[in-house]
Amino acid sequence: MRTVPISRFVDSSIPSGGLTTTLIAVVTDVVRSGKPIVGFGFSSIGRFGQQGLIEERFAPRLRDAAFIDIADETGENIDPFKAWNVLMKGEKPGGHGERCVAVGTLDMALWDVAAKVADVPLYHHIARLGPKTSVKAVRAYAGGGYYYPRDDVGRLVDEVKRIRDLGYTHFKLKMGSLSLAEDLNRIEAVAKVMSASRNVAADAMNSYGRRGALEAAAALSPFGLWWFEDLCDPLDFGTLADVARRYEGPIAAGEALFSVAEAKLLEQHGGVRKDKDILLFDPVHCYGLPGYLEIVREFERRGWERNRFWPHGGHLFTLHLVQGLGLGGTEVNPFSFQPFGGLTDDALITDGRVCAPDVPGIGFEARTATRRAFADLLGGG
Ligand code: MG
Fold first, then answer.
1. Where are the alpha helices (DSSP H) in 235-353?
2. Could you tell me if 204 and 172 are in contact, meaning their C-beta atoms sit under 8 angstroms apart?
3. What is the DSSP-derived secondary structure letter of residue 350?
4. What is the DSSP letter of 147?
5. Is the pTM of this model over 0.85?
6. How far apart are CA 204 and CA 356, in angstroms?
7. Alpha-carbon span 355 to 343, nearest angstrom
8. Alpha-carbon separation of residue 140 from 1, 54, 238, 254, 313 (angstroms)
9. In the chain, what are the domains?
């Protein structure tokens, strides 16, 4: 296990808020082609590593478990749902804090193990958890568009051109840290490259108070954006509901809510609309796949379709979940949060759609930079 810095920018010398992520390798005694099967996980992106909690509380529970407590029905593989119960043993309701990220980090590595032992891609391994109709290629959009400290708009346009040329049809940029006029200028510049503002989403990174959110929503209305994301504090459901009443376009929310309990509050009090709004919950930040599934099923009980879920993350694990669970689409971070954002080296994005890699597990080994990072982790112990 190791916690490493992770940058929003390709050029990691640009300050990026001190973000980190924790890498983990779960080494098994199952030998395949002369080598033990190893599952890899990390704490998703955009927040902070969780090495302390993993080391102190969660990894020891897993190490101390008897195999029978985490084995699947064949007795030859692990059942990550049973392993999740072991991880959560004795945890109390509420107080989600960031323990959910620690659990999600371990959970990712356990799913990688389970799919590798089953010798199938993860999306295939979890397809039984999805709806009957399974989709091969799923919708994908590129995230990025952070503020550059120098030549911001010029560098932003270069970034979006590269993304368009990779085959993406939709792009999400950041807003909320400059004046509204400057942010609108950035959106216009991006919309020109992506053909139209309806192909562009704007993420305010939870930066606005009530007044700022309403002003931004009014200013964005004429653009007809793909969606308007994270417009206020994640728990300010009053402001979110006020904006949802006035703003006609889709709103995206839920990225910084980490539990089914918080997700229910969003649904009940945030004014989100099941016919148009987007649910961003990050599976790794929401206690991993078992916690994320609770949220999906809770929304389904309340009449939502799975295609409203576009999970935050922008990496291979979320792609597998979108494909395996039949969700709306996936974020991809082709250039941000390297070497963990993005897809495999040979991934083909065709008209804004992509398939998860057909290799056993999550497929981190099929992205050179990610494979090196995990090899380095194993080499360093
Ligand atoms: Mg966001």
1. 237-246, 260-269, 288-301, 316-325
2. no
3. B
4. P
5. yes
6. 29
7. 10
8. 30, 31, 31, 18, 12
9. 2-119+373-377 (3.30.390.10), 127-362 (3.20.20.120)
The catalytic residue positions are 174, 312
* Measured distance CA(212)–CA(202) in Å, rounded: 15
Quote the CA–CA distance of 376 and 1 in Å, as a whole number: 11
For residue 349, give every residue at least 6 positions away whose Cβ sits within 8 Å of its Cβ, in sequence order, or none.
140, 166, 167, 168, 332, 343
What token pair was written down for 310? 């576009």
Distance of alpha carbon 366 from alpha carbon 346, whole angstroms: 8
CA of 205 to the centre of ligand 1 (A): 5
d(CA 117, ligand 1 centre) in Å? 34
For the chain, give the number of residues: 381
Structural tokens at position 345: 């080296």
Question: Rounded to the nearest whole angstrom, what is the distance from the C-alpha of residue 357 to the centroid of ligand 1?
Answer: 25
Cα–Cα distance, 94 to 265 (Å, whole number) = 13
DSSP summary character for residue 71: B
- Helix then strand count (H, E) for the chain reads 14, 11
Residue 348: name the closest of 169, 199, 161, 166 by CA. Answer: 166
- Tens-digit pLDDT string for the chain (381 aa): 999 888 888 877 787 788 999 999 999 999 999 999 999 999 999 899 999 999 999 999 999 999 999 999 999 999 999 999 999 999 999 999 899 999 999 999 999 999 999 999 999 999 988 776 566 899 999 999 999 999 999 999 999 999 999 999 999 999 999 999 999 999 999 999 999 999 999 999 999 999 999 999 999 999 999 999 999 999 999 999 999 999 999 999 999 999 999 999 999 999 999 999 999 999 999 999 999 999 999 999 999 999 999 999 999 999 999 999 999 999 999 998 889 999 999 999 999 999 999 999 999 999 999 999 999 999 864
CB 304 within 8 A of CB 107: no
For residue 142, give every residue at least 6 positions away whose Cβ sits within 8 Å of its Cβ, in sequence order, or none.
163, 166, 168, 170, 171, 172, 331, 332, 333, 334
Residue 292 near residue 299 (C-beta atoms within 8 A):
no
Q: How much distance in Å is there from the Cα of 174 to the middle of ligand 1?
A: 8
Cα distance between residue 292 and residue 163, in whole Å: 29
